[in-house]
Amino acid sequence: MLSQKGGAGKSTLTMQLAGGLARRGKRVVIIDLDPQETALRWAHAAAAGVPFPATVSRLPGEPDALPAAIKAAGRDADVILLDCPPSIEHAATLASLQVADVALVPVVPSPADLWSTMGVERLILQVQASRKGLKAALVPNRVLRTNLAWDVLEVMRDFTLPVLGAALSQRNAFAQSAVVGGTVYQLGRAGSEAAREVDKLVVEVLKLTGDKT
């Protein structure tokens, strides 16, 4: 997950996607590359006896250690998620694009977020020019049911990168799951609508990776 500005929901997307993949039997490892360590703090907030459904760790060392960290994590994981810093100039973001199979860009449907997404897209397209195997997509996140949001979602389709066929709405359940150190799947009926959205996200991401399981 990468973005150019904070507040796009990068860590939320990472943690919920991890929960959805885990429910499908995937062994998931998250490497938290963001200096704010949101993913780590989120997982550490889990109640005793109810661990977060994925292993969350920070990168041991500098960004150039990322390939080795991924190789090591891959021994015990089916999927490795990288939660990047909110900056396309950060060394960890650039390192991630050199090793990732898929780059997901959460986009809040607002004019300011669209402007910042242009820079992210340019960077990804530059990397794709030399790394033909890198796939990428925009993911609508924190979507409100307003006319402005729908207009922005339409504008998103003018980007070169495809828009993923799933979106996460602005729901209290996503914030609440962070408070309890889990995912929306743990919230019962209060998280049921959010869980359905995450299920759709998981399906779309697996399609993007070519995983048909």
UniProtKB/TrEMBL annotation:
Classification via Pfam families: CbiA (PF01656)
Top-level taxon in the UniProt lineage: Bacteria
Gene3D superfamilies assigned: P-loop containing nucleotide triphosphate hydrolases (3.40.50.300)
CobQ/CobB/MinD/ParA nucleotide binding domain mapped to chain residues: 2-178
Classification via NCBIfam families: ParA_partition
UniProt cross-references to PANTHER family, sorted A to Z: COBQ_COBB_MIND_PARA NUCLEOTIDE BINDING DOMAIN-CONTAINING PROTEIN (PTHR13696:SF96), P-LOOP CONTAINING NUCLEOSIDE TRIPHOSPHATE HYDROLASE (PTHR13696)
Protein name as catalogued: Chromosome partitioning protein ParA
Taxon lineage: Bacteria, Pseudomonadati, Pseudomonadota, Betaproteobacteria, Rhodocyclales
